[in-house]
Amino acid sequence: MKRMTWAALSAALLVPAIAAPMASADSIAYVNKTDGNVYLSTPDGSRQYQVTTTGGYSDVSQADDGTMIALKGVRLNKLARDGTVLADFDTPVSDTRDAPAKTFYGPFDPAISPDGTKVAYTYYYMTQSQNPGCFPPTCVVAINEAGTGYSYSDRQTSWQEPGLGYHSGWRHPSWVDNDMTMISNPSHLPNRDIILDRISDGGNGHGNMVMNWTSDTAENNPHVSGGDITRDKRKLAYQSGENDSTLTVSYVPAFPTAWKDGDPNTDEIRVCYRYSNPAGGAFGVPTFSPDGGAIAYHAGDGIHVAAVPAFGGDCTLDGATPAPPVVIPNGVEPDWGPADVPAARPAANTTPTTTNPTTKTNTTKPSLSVKVLAATRRAGIKLSVKVTGKGKLSATAKSGTKTVGKASATVKKPGTASLRLKVSRKGKLAVKITWRPTGGTAITKTITAKVN
């Protein structure tokens, strides 16, 4: 394999820091690890939209029309963009009993098909067996298996239902198109790192056929975990390294269209470069932008976005982002789709009222008041924000359409909180302050700060 390796933090001088291309209609669905809710964000992180309010979600995936599948406990919720639960159902592996009563664990890693009709998910099977011809404990054998199950996106679906089923041995599904998934990270070796599962062929859905594709053994890479493929089938990105300590971007010279004796009639992938040194020690599963020009992934500090080279016919670093920035703090499990972020919900008045003893009428207390304490390029913009309850405060400073500063804080009780935005420009900046009261609707206020 022709390859180039690249540690992101040590190679920052190799490639100019080019921002990832951001299509205005794209969105990243993700889970906020602080409150366990599903959110949507523009790819640059400048506009957020809270989808759910009940918490308890751990993963989310979105279809092309914007409908989503989110994992809540051992159940799958199909969600509309406004948070409406369109379906709430379990799977054949959704067992809530404690071990060892249960042998199936899951579902995990739910991925909705581009047309929104099907869901693929990871499951695990763990039990013990014993050879009756010898004596325990030497003959007690642990059986550990993993696989990918399939379901319709609006109801519980048996594995015996024609056309879907399961595929044992590989996990972390990602849809190539509406009829094929890419699954990886085999639970038994020596199997290929990545295989392809065509749902409609009548056999793969029940694990009867292996459509081997490729493995990444460059530089003794120990394994491949979850990944994604571009819609034109020319780029791959996936977790790699020991304990997902690296993230690999690869070029696909030719996507397989035929198999001979179980193996594809195609060239291997070409490993182009790897990111390393993630915050928290591990990379999450990457997701490509709809146009294939960028990837998003989470690490311990939130969701990062990186530009990906065009790969005109071979590996290159030209156009790659050397040190991808955090665009969504506290975000995990991103999934990039072509649907836009919805417009903000109308702000509701969630503040208490008091009665004027003279007029006997109700007057509303200010729900959000902001005072600028300082505004200099060196010290940043210092804000004093008064709120009437606990929740989350955030602020974004813009010069025209360019975001030049951000800050956030958690408010644990009513009163005054402080925010300090480090800004990269002087002059008149528009500062948007957002308060998300716990259990209430977000309230925003925009002010102008003159930075000297």
Features:
single chain, 452 residues, mainly beta, Neuraminidase, Immunoglobulin-like, 2 domains, four-stranded antiparallel β-sheet, 35 strands, 47% strand, globular, disordered N terminus
What can you see in these coordinates?
The protein has about 450 residues and is mostly beta strands. Helix content is about 0%, strand content about 45%. It has no helices and 35 strands. The strands form ten sheets. A four-stranded antiparallel beta sheet has the order 3-2-1-26, with no helix packed on it. It is globular and about 80 Å long. The N and C termini lie far apart (about 55 Å).
Secondary structure tally: strands: 35
Number of domains: 2
Strand line-up of the largest beta sheet: 3-2-1-26
User: Which percent bin holds the helix content?
Assistant: under 10%
Mean residue pLDDT: 86
Provide a count of the helices.
0
Low-confidence segments: 1-23, 349-356, 358-366
| Residue fraction in strands | over 45%
Shape designation: globular
Secondary-structure-based class equals mainly beta
- Tell me the name of the CATH homologous superfamily of the largest domain: TolB, C-terminal domain
CATH class of the largest domain: Mainly Beta
**Cα gyration radius (Å):** 25 Å
Specify the biggest β-sheet. Answer: 4 strands, antiparallel
Rounded to the nearest angstrom, the distance between the terminal CA atoms is 54 Å
Region (Disordered): 345-364
Biased composition (Low complexity): 349-364
Keywords: Signal
Signal peptide: 1-19
